[in-house]
Amino acid sequence: PGMATLYRELRAAHPDMPFVYLSTGSWNIAPNLGRFLRRHGYPSGPLLLTDWGPTNTGWFRSGQQHKRASLHRLAREFPHIQWLLVGDDGQHDPYIYSELAREHRDHVAGIAIRELNPVEKVLSQGALVGLDPHTQAATQVPHSIPAISGKDGHVLLKKYCALRQKFGE
Predict the structure, then answer these.
(1) Which of 40, 110, 130, 164 has most Cβ atoms within 10 angstroms of its Cβ?
(2) Does the pTM of the predicted model rise above 0.85?
């Protein structure tokens, strides 16, 4: 809930902000995903999805590696853009985003993480698991990069607006 509103407000505040939808979903879902985004009023933008099926090294592709490689590619190919990374805590977004923030501070404007409820976590991960303390330590974001989290897009929008007001944006 509220994620489309958050994205529309981001577009209104930053009309030139590019939107890129990065997902571990496979390309065969692109038509359905595109319809979902349009139907719910998300800003338009390209989809960066993954290939489906076996590789030379295994039956499945690494969603983490897909996201990591795609983010590094965006930072490399668009060095003048500072990205606001929006994801959820269902799989590896907090870790991957904080890793990018530590390695490329000048390419990350901020991080926003939606906190999944217990049912969403089970659907996302296949089991209800806690956050490993080692993983938690690895998700530390440099202090110079704002990071917010919340249960839905409405909470994230409130926190984003508070940050903008705090920094006089």
Answers:
(1) 110
(2) no
